[in-house]
Amino acid sequence: MTTARRHFGTDGVRGIANTDLTPEVVFGIGRAFVATLSGDAPTRPRVAVGKDTRLSSDLLEAALLAGLMSAGADVSALGVIPTPGVAYLTRTGDFDAGAMISASHNPIADNGVKFFTADGFKLSDRAEAAIEEAMARGGAPRPAGPGVGRTLVGGSPAPYVAFLASLPRRAISGRLIVDAAFGAATAVLPAAFRGVAADVIVQNGEGDGMRINVDCGSTHLEPLQEAVRREHGGAVGIAFDGDADRMLAVDENGEAVSGDAIIAMLAPWFKEKGWLPRPRIALTVLSNLALTKHLHSCGIEVCETPVGDRHLIEAMLAEDLMLGGEPSGHIVARPFNTTGDGCVTALLLLEYLAERGLPLHEARRTFTPYPQVQDSIAVANGDKERLPETPRVRETLARWRSRMGDRGRLLVRPSGTEPLVRVMVEAGDLAFCEEVLEDVLRSLAAAREEVRG
């Protein structure tokens, strides 16, 4: 009988550190993880462990390392490093698995743990369920004497920095401004971007766990936009999130450049370079319909997946696709890494601009996105799955989707992390999108009251 998933969510384990994600829980997860490795790894598996800069990462790192060693694993503490750096070092080093302590773009009170297999990919649902089952039965080994795990010496981000430095690079004209979000990117900057511009300026470049993601980085582009427009006159701005697995850009006019826009530039370029053996890439359902049509005009097909980079990667592996991405800036370029990698994406974008000899504001004009509006409605956590399936909401959705045809999209989905139902409307006319959004939210609110009654 399969154990209910108590700890793992849409992207590893995540929660408020030291409240629901306690050191005791993380210790147990570490022990259970080693128990699940017993069939695929030697009796002393080697696990690489990284972390972001948030205050609780030291606490949870100590708990995770202790749990892994308690079950007989040898561990390499990499220190502060981007999540994709852990994936890279796990698959290229002498490791049987990897783990990253981070809550990505979440607020500083949150934290989490993500695990990687020996080939650098995130765990499957089945593997995470096995960890849950091992925790429930308390079946992890407890070796003594020479069987206890140890900490290996020499762990650091240096090999990942060297890998980034080896990627193709030529200098763009003008200045590059990089927002490190006080997070894990600080461990690889500015070395990873040396030589890509005449002048590279790093802002929010201290590893400050009190300020990670606070009004900065890829979730708060305004300070970077202001810096590009007025403070430095930068040619390109790059913003990372707390663990640097995603990035967004800002053009020289201070305008935001989404993950969709980056994919629109990179996908045809990948095809030219021979990096797409099949002219097909993966996008989540949140990507703009105009992007899909643009890619079709370039002879590139699209595989549509549910929201989340793990779903994206699963589809890419199933179909052997080399590129996938989300509007949020999670972009997976499999010729270079096995997970979303903000630094790799940024370096590829800069190389593309330098090769084309174009400023970013011109290069991004490859497609014009359809107007898109989004909102959400709060619901009881147990109702978020069934509310979109009520007769009232289904009738509303069917009516609007019939009117849209293939000229727009209406997406209603339960949030993966919060007690919300999210609504996204996309069509050629903004006023029409807003009309649809308002009507669907009304329908959801009415259905919520019916369910409560």
Largest sheet: number of strands, sense, barrel closure:
7 strands, mixed
By CATH, the topology of the largest domain is: Alpha-D-Glucose-1,6-Bisphosphate, Chain A, domain 3
Instruction: State the low-pLDDT regions, or none.
Output: none
Helical run tally = 13
| Strand order, largest beta sheet | 1-2-6-5-3-4-7
Any idea how many domains? 4
Give the helix proportion (percent range). Answer: 25-40%
Span between N and C termini? 34 Å
Helix and strand composition category: alpha/beta
The CATH superfamily title of the largest domain: Alpha-D-Glucose-1,6-Bisphosphate, subunit A, domain 3
Q: Which CATH-level-2 architecture of the largest domain?
A: 3-Layer(aba) Sandwich
Tally of strands: 19
CATH class term of the largest domain:
Alpha Beta
- What overall geometry do the principal axes of the alpha carbons give? globular
Radius of gyration: 22 Å
Strand % is: 15-25%
Mean pLDDT: 92
Keywords:
22% strand, 36% helix, 19 strands, globular, Alpha-D-Glucose-1,6-Bisphosphate, Chain A, domain 3, 4 domains, 453 residues
